[in-house]
Amino acid sequence: MSLGPDAVNALLWLLHQAQQTGWQWLDAWGLTQPLHGQPGWPFAHRLAAEYLLNEPGQSRRLVLALAALLLLSLLGALAWRWRRARGWLAGVALALLALTPWPEWRLLVRPTVPTAFHQSPNGFRASSIVQGQRTYLAHCQRCHGADGRGEGPDAPGLAMWPPTLNGSLLWKRLDGELFWRIRHGLQDRHGQSTMPGSRLSDQQIWDLLDFVRAQAAGQSLRQTGGWMHPVPVPDASISCHQGSRQLSSLRGQRLRLVLTGGQGPVATEDPRLFSVAVGQDAADLDCQADNEELTQALAILLGVPPQELPGHQLIADKFGWLRVRGQPGAAQWSEDDLVCRTPGMPNPGNPAQAQASPADGLDAIIRRIDSEPVRPQRGGFPH
Q: Which of 16, 62, 88, 128 is the most exposed place for a label (fewest CB within 10 A)?
């Protein structure tokens, strides 16, 4: 019997934390080399979380193998202490070695790069998304296309057609692996270049990755009506009654972003939500963000031109993930407004799964996002 999804995610999280901790210890002992402002990963491979996700049976084998190794260590300690029992302890150890369903160890690692565990210094800021858009338009769109679908004007003349940046590609690699590919380029299995390296600065590359992820979210929302992967609230400065602060400081409470300036009724305060008016035509809400970069970043995330933003509303959960989109002209909230769902969450648009909605649609949405949190994955690892 295979492990359930929650158990597999817990195992992957522990493995990721173990790798991160090992990396930090190696750096503390001076066994890593600084690279692009952060310690480099000194090994040519890392744990292959993607394989464990695709082969859940191997997760069970890995758990059993780790338990067997722990028992073998215990047996070794007992044999050292109780010399008279070494014979039967050795027999138990041999039986354990023979009966344990060991995983295929060679499949549990994958090649990686020295910047594999580097982390972006940006924190997914609105300013970095906008700066990344400028870099993308100047250096990437001729091959990857203005919409990231890989259909730019120079794409037909390349040795290999560029992949779409709007699918799961960005989530199959760690941030540091993507950083390395942009800096050093890509090669096919014969060593031929399929994408040249770049002369962008480290900061430009991190900004570019923020924009590409934001653009992928916007394209997904336009095409499917939802986000395939969780999207955080872009950080930016806001003005509140108590003074200036950052959107990221509001983690721990439900956040509503109200895009002002459109026609129709102005959103009012709601005690269940901390509300921020985004735009110059501010509503009388908790805070105001008269921030052009935040407006541009939200337009990218929603996949709409900036002039179509007024009237939209976004709700984030207590962990800072955007979960709900309200569209201009909508009089009431409903569970159809959920655009980021946990796996297996019913789709209200499916008649077979539809249920009677309470009169207060917002209350139903809040219950859903509170009881069904999401967790993103990078390179197969939960984050």
A: 88
Residues 134 and 211: their CA atoms lie apart, in Å, by 9
| Measured distance CA(84)–CA(88) in Å, rounded | 9
Task: For 13-22, write each residue's pLDDT tens digit.
Answer: 888 888 989 9
**Phi and psi at residue 275, to the nearest 5°:** -105, 135
Could you tell me which of 17, 24, 207 has the C-alpha nearest to residue 130?
207
H-assigned helices in the chain: 5-28, 49-54, 56-81, 86-99, 126-139, 141-144, 175-184, 202-224, 292-302, 361-371
Question: Is the pLDDT reported for residue 368 higher than 60?
Answer: yes
pLDDT at 358: 46
Element (H, E) at 273: none
Give the position of tokens 């709700």: 315
Crossing angle (nearest 10°) for helices 126-139 and 292-302: 70
Q: Does the predicted TM-score (pTM) go above 0.90?
A: no
| Across 209-227, average pLDDT | 94
Residues 46-65: tens digit of each pLDDT:
988 877 877 778 888 888 88
Q: Which residues pair with 338 in a beta bridge?
A: 324
Q: What is the pLDDT of residue 35?
A: 93
Interval 98-110: pLDDT, tens: 888 888 888 889 9
Q: What angle do CA 371, 374, 380 make, to 5 degrees?
A: 145
Phi then psi for residue 378, to 5 deg, are -125, 125
List Cα–Cα distances, 171 to 32, 307, 319, in angstroms: 26, 30, 20
DSSP for 96-109? HHHHS----GGGGE
What end-to-end distance do the CA atoms of the chain give, in Å?
26
Phi and psi at residue 168, to the nearest 5°: -90, 0
Mean of the per-residue pLDDT values of the chain: 86
Interior angle at CA 132, CA 127 and CA 134, nearest 5: 105
Domains in the chain (CATH in brackets) are 5-111 (no CATH), 126-224 (1.10.760.10), 231-343+358-382 (3.40.30)
Task: Tell me how far apart the alpha carbons of residues 311 and 327 are, in angstroms, rounded to a whole number.
Answer: 7
Q: Mark residue 118 as left, alpha or beta (left: phi above 0; alpha: psi -120 to 50; beta: remaining).
A: beta
